[in-house]
Design brief:
It is built from 9 helices and 9 strands. With 238 residues, the protein is of the alpha+beta class. A 5-stranded mixed beta sheet has the order 3-2-1-4-5, with helices on both faces. It has a 4-stranded antiparallel beta sheet with strand order 7-8-6-9, with helices on one face.
Length: 238
């Protein structure tokens, strides 16, 4: 198997349209040999806020120090991406949205944009946990979780977790192939008392219309029906 790029961002908020990346880290990982080939992390200047500082520990003074920095950490990360077959991130949709909002495209060994694989939603872990938060998985797999909420600590932690997941290479390959299929949005019709089952199935709460929803990928109607029937509760296609 070729190498993967594990990436994480720290940001000033949750909205890529108005918030900014203040730190990015990426490591190039050889899953076959369970080793980290190289790494790059760095701060990116932006105006931060009190909430972000509390979560990340990244202060405005730290960001002011890189305001006139010559080297953008994404320059090195782009080179690392060229050796990769995909990008892996925990809650990848979040990081992907912020990276793309900066106009950055990370292309791989075939010079095409890399697929983003979510280690939260696309990977099956062999240890049952209450949730799939990175810190929870780290504890379950006996991985040091010190320094969480800094980008380099988080990508290193994720790599050490993935090293311990059986069949991780084949799971990554399957996830890449799955990303090529059309995406379908489904909405849970389960009663309230099945909320925990819905959450465990990977559905997310939309407070605007008060629904639990999830995107699935399927090549045809039969595949959609097979996925839907596996949930154990009723759903509808949005």
């Amino acid at each position: 198997m070729n190498k993967i790029l594990i990436l994480d961002t720290e940001t000033t908020g949750l909205d890529p349209k108005k918030d900014s990346i203040i730190e990015v880290a990426a490591i190039l990982v050889d899953l076959n040999h369970k080793r980290i080939e190289c790494q790059r992390s760095g701060l990116i200047y932006a105006l931060t806020n009190e909430d972000s500082e509390k979560i990340t520990g990244i202060t405005q003074l730290m960001l002011d120090g890189v305001k006139n920095a010559f080297d953008d950490p994404f320059n090195s990360i782009k080179i690392m991406a060229e050796q990769s077959i995909c990008i892996v991130a925990h809650n990848a949709e979040f990081d992907k949205a912020f990276v793309e909002a900066k106009g950055i495209v990370l292309s791989g060994i075939n010079n095409l944009p890399l697929a983003w694989i979510c280690s939260y939603r696309d990977i099956n872990y062999d240890i049952q946990t209450e949730n799939k938060k990175l810190s929870t998985l780290a504890e379950a797999y006996s991985v040091d979780s010190g320094g969480a909420h800094r980008a380099l600590s988080d990508v290193t932690m994720l790599a050490q977790i993935l090293f311990k997941v059986p069949n991780i290479e084949s799971q990554i390959i399957s996830a890449i192939e799955n990303k090529k299929k059309p995406e379908v949005k489904i909405i849970s019709l389960a009663p309230f008392d099945m909320k925990e089952d819905v959450k465990k199935a990977g559905f997310r709460w939309n407070p605007q219309d008060k629904t639990w929803w999830k995107n699935i990928r399927a090549a045809n109607e039969n595949e959609i029906n097979n996925i839907i029937s596996s949930f154990g509760f009723d759903v509808k296609i949005a």
